[in-house]
Amino acid sequence: MSRRIVQRRSKIHGNGVFAACNLAAGVSLIEYRGKRLTHAQANRAYGGDVDSGHTFLFTLNEKYLIDGNVDGNVARWINHSCAPNCQAWVVENAEGDPRRDRVMIESKRAIRKGEELTYDYGITLEERQTPELKKIWACRCGAPRCTGTLLKPKRSKQA
């Protein structure tokens, strides 16, 4: 793990990742690592369970995702925020192999030493977003304009 970030308990949720020093904007901090799975493999492994409100699955592209729960690193502990100080980027493999695409976490703005790192998970579900699902996927970021949920509105279908 980089000496620029450390893992410890979070006020947002469970574990978190924090700046161990002042960080400038635009700094690549860590790669989100884990086992590569197809979406079908992930559905079989996790049963398409949307009722847990907890996941280490990160969509890589249309074919693959990263399971941070298997062979993952500290990046899996970066919590969601509605006002994030980091962003996640998918870096496509230069040879065009979608299985070798990567996810990098980068600072969006200057981050002070001791500040928790966060990014917007951007979770979209196929299921109807019921009040129960929104409660299960509740956001605890505490941002002034917190949406109250990690779930993004479904995109409306254009006619």
Question: Nutshell version of this structure?
Answer:
By secondary structure, this protein is mostly beta strands.
Question: Secondary-structure blueprint of this entry?
Answer:
Elements: E1 5-9, E2 15-19, E3 28-32, E4 35-38, H1 39-46, E5 57-59, E6 64-67, E7 79-80, E8 86-91, E9 102-107, E10 118-119, H2 131-136
Parallel strand pairs: 7-10
Antiparallel strand pairs: 1-2, 3-9, 4-6, 5-6, 8-9
Task: Describe the fold and architecture.
The strands form four sheets. The protein has a three-stranded antiparallel β-sheet, with no helix packed on it. A three-stranded antiparallel β-sheet has the order 4-6-5. It has a two-stranded antiparallel ribbon with strand order 1-2. Helix content is 9%, strand content 26%. It has 159 residues and is mainly beta. The model has no long low-confidence stretch (mean pLDDT 90). The chain has one domain (5-136): Beta-clip-like (Beta Complex).
Mean pLDDT: 90
Q: Which architecture would the CATH scheme give at its second level?
A: Beta Complex
CATH H-level homologous superfamily name: SET domain
How do the strands of the widest beta sheet line up side by side? Answer: 3-9-8
Terminal residue distance: 48 Å
Summed up, the domain count is 1
Which band does the percent of strand residues land in?
25-35%
Please write the string of helix (H) and strand (E) elements: EEEEHEEEEEEH
Please describe the biggest sheet, giving its number of strands, its sense, and whether it closes into a barrel: 3 strands, antiparallel
Radius of gyration: 16 Å
Q: How many helical stretches?
A: 2
The level-1 CATH class: Mainly Beta
How much helix, percentage-wise, in residues?
Answer: under 10%
Shape: globular
CATH topology: Beta-clip-like
**Low-pLDDT regions:** none
Number of strands: 10
**Structural class by secondary-structure content:** mainly beta
